[in-house]
Structures are given as structure tokens and as C-alpha cells.
Please model this.
Amino acid sequence: MRVEEVEAAATHDLRWRVLRNRRAGAPVVFPEDARPGAFHLAVRNAGDGVLAVASFSAEATPHRPGRTAVHLRGMAVDEPYQRHGVGRLLVTTAVERLRREGVEVLWCNARDSAAGFYARLGFEVVGEGFVVPESGFAHHVMLRDL
Ligand SMILES: CC(C)(COP(=O)(O)OP(=O)(O)OC[C@H]1O[C@@H](n2cnc3c(N)ncnc32)[C@H](O)[C@@H]1OP(=O)(O)O)[C@@H](O)C(=O)NCCC(=O)NCCS
Model:
């Protein structure tokens, strides 16, 4: 397995299948994709193509005022590969890059169903929970000080 930077378009299939439950017409383009400096990482292996994707873009968080922060979005691991360390590999690789770039905080709107994953990777819950109306999923902001 290797982690590579990819174009936004290379994330769309996994976003649709894993995060949008293959819903016809569900949006797979995020406004953050167009931000200057946004980047996308994918985990690939030789036989099976893209196993996981995640996207990163500069965005401050009120939970760490004044800190250089990056928003993690679109974290998705292909179902047969979930719980095999693929998501950990992707986030760990991103954290190394972001630290080199001087980023101080990585944060995301974590689905409560995935909160245990982020907690295992050193993220903490901040603030109150909320529901994203389009999906109905309960979320909390989670962040990791880098
Ligand atoms: C959540 C997700 C990104 C995690 O990636 P993954 O490759 O399955 O996770 P990993 O195997 O790298 O797990 C790392 C650790 O987190 C734990 N973990 C993974 N998913 C978890 C979950 N949903 N709940 C609790 N713990 C979880 C693993 O057991 C592992 O623990 P360990 O440190 O004791 O070994 C992936 O399962 C996924 O795409 N799920 C569906 C979409 C989704 O929820 N995306 C996140 C939206 S915010």
C-alpha cells in the first residue's frame, strides 16, 4: 500500500460509494476542493486501485483561535478494507506532511459513528453535537493539535 496525492476527481467514486451510500445524484464535489492549497490523498495498492481517500484544506476553527488549521473532509475507506489500518495510514501520512508545513491543528466534522476512529488517532471532541440535515448523521467537531 502507498499513499499518493491525487486530483479531486480521483476521490469522487469512493466519496459516492462510502459516504453517499451510492445515492443517485448525491453530490461528491465539496466547495473546499476549490480552495487554494487544498490537497487530496489516496491509499492505493497494486491490484485494487484506490482503497481510501481524504481531502485537506486550510480553514480556521473557532476552537483554536489564531492557530493555523486544516479541515479534513471526505474520509472514506472502501468497505472491504475498513478496519485494516488503511485510514490510520492515510491520516498519519497527512499529519506528517501538515507538521512539515507548519500546520498546528487538524480538525473535522466527525460522524459519531466514526468518532472512535478519530479518537484512536489522537483527536478530541470539542463543542456540542450537531446533525447534518442532508444526511441525518449526528456529528461532533473533533480536532488534533499537531
Ligand atoms: C471511519 C473510517 C474512515 C476508518 O478507517 P479504517 O481504515 O476503517 O480504520 P483503521 O483500520 O485505520 O482504524 C484505526 C483504529 O480506529 C478504530 N476504528 C476504526 N473505525 C472505527 C469506528 N467506526 N469506530 C470505532 N473505532 C474505529 C480501529 O479499530 C483501529 O483501532 P486500533 O488503534 O485499536 O487498532 C472507515 O471505516 C470508513 O470509511 N467508514 C465509513 C465512512 C465514514 O464513516 N467516514 C468518516 C466520516 S467522518
Q: What stands out?
A: The first helix runs from residue 12 to 19. The first strand starts at residue 2 and ends at 6. The chain has a mean pLDDT of 96. Residues 18-19, 75-77, 82-88, 110-111, 113-114, 116-117, 120 surround coenzyme A (CB under 6 Å).
